[in-house]
Amino acid sequence: MTIETKRNDLASTRIADDEATPIEPGQCRLRVDHFALTTNNITYGVFGDMLRYWDVFPATDSPTEWGRIPTWGFAEVVESKSSDVAIGERLFGFLPMSEETIITPGKIDDRGLSDIAPHRVGLAGAYNRYQKASTDPTYRADREAQQMLLYPLFFTSFVIDDFLTDNEDFGASQIVVSSASSKTAIGVAYLAKQRGIKAVGLTSTGNREFVESLAVFSEVVVYEDVNEIAKDPSAYVDIAGNQDLLRAVHTHLDGVLNHSMVVGNTNWDHIATDASELAAPRPEFLFAPTQISKRTKEWGRDELDRRIGTAWSSYSEWCDSWIEFSQASGNDEVLAVYEILRSGRPDPKQGFICSIHSGTNK
């Protein structure tokens, strides 16, 4: 069983009853044990064509119309025709909302492997890579939920913060972050606080109390009160993707907004009401793998892993103070979670851990 989504209409879903396809020499069959669902996965669907997310797990029937939104999760090798991958190997990486999936392992080393199937050629390496739980120094079996739900989003937060640091914050004295209740935004604010730069969180009235309770944003402003943001040199991190909000921030901070970064699209279904020209600077999309590639060349892989690992360890422990995990098993429950996230109604404290295998979240 696999949950598929209409590529041009994320509200439309279907269940594909895949037959067990025999694996070819060099391939492995993975049992998808469980995966996390967040608004970030909705963003994958929104940017599916532009960033090739639909290419990761193409639908077998009508692949130009339907697709499989990638998630982050854990899987186990249950069948292998690769001499370098043993049955029972536990892997963390991109997975479909499915019971199982087939990969073609390559670029295998002590840390993990990549799926080198033809349809994934040219994708960012991070999206093809699977980490071996057996050799991951940060892996803990009792904290798989935290890793699935928070690590990929914190990884993005780390890259955002590092990109800003790498560019001396573009001369900004404050970082303005939309969708402040999102886990990516929370990570950005946490890291900004660690290095002593002001983070202003923009959020809805309903989420204001929660965002303030985290005590990582220097200031929290509701969307209707953008004009209350101090007119200091600023960098804008746009996670909401709300074009009217983007315009309001640019207009209010006109002349002091030094950089505008597009990261996500949590308000993916918002229709802009104003088509007038946007005040400078021009928003620039941040593609995380580009910055990671840059740092890998500059620092080396081991040093990059060390820095991310150190930051992740403290952040993960801090998140235990507020995160609440919810389990969803089987198609109906997982689709219900998907709809909560797609419709923009999630409780920001909740983290959804899902499994298509009915009645189990291993």
Record the SSE blueprint.
Blueprint: E1 2-6, E2 9-16, E3 28-37, H1 39-46, E4 66-67, E5 71-80, E6 90-95, E7 100-103, E8 105-106, E9 112-115, H2 125-128, E10 129-132, H3 144-166, E11 174-177, H4 183-194, E12 198-203, H5 208-214, E13 219-222, E14 234-238, H6 243-252, E15 257-262, E16 284-285, H7 288-299, H8 301-319, E17 324-329, H9 330-342, E18 350-355
Parallel strand pairs: 11-12, 11-14, 12-13, 14-15, 15-16, 17-18
Antiparallel strand pairs: 1-2, 1-4, 3-5, 3-7, 3-18, 5-6, 6-10, 8-9, 9-10
Helix pairs in contact: 3-4, 3-8, 7-8
Order of helices and strands: EEEHEEEEEEHEHEHEHEEHEEHHEHE
Largest sheet: 9 strands, mixed
Number of domains: 2
Shape: globular
From the alpha carbons, calculate the radius of gyration and give it in angstroms.
Answer: 20 Å
Low-confidence stretches: none
Chain-averaged pLDDT: 91
CATH class of the largest domain: Alpha Beta
Distance between the termini: 17 Å
Share of residues in helices: 25-40%
What is the CATH topology of the largest domain? Quinone Oxidoreductase, Chain A, domain 1
Number of strands: 18
The named CATH superfamily of the largest domain: Medium-chain alcohol dehydrogenases, catalytic domain
CATH architecture of the largest domain: Alpha-Beta Complex
By secondary-structure content and strand pairing, the structural class works out as: alpha/beta
Q: How many helices does DSSP assign?
A: 9
Name the beta content range: 25-35%
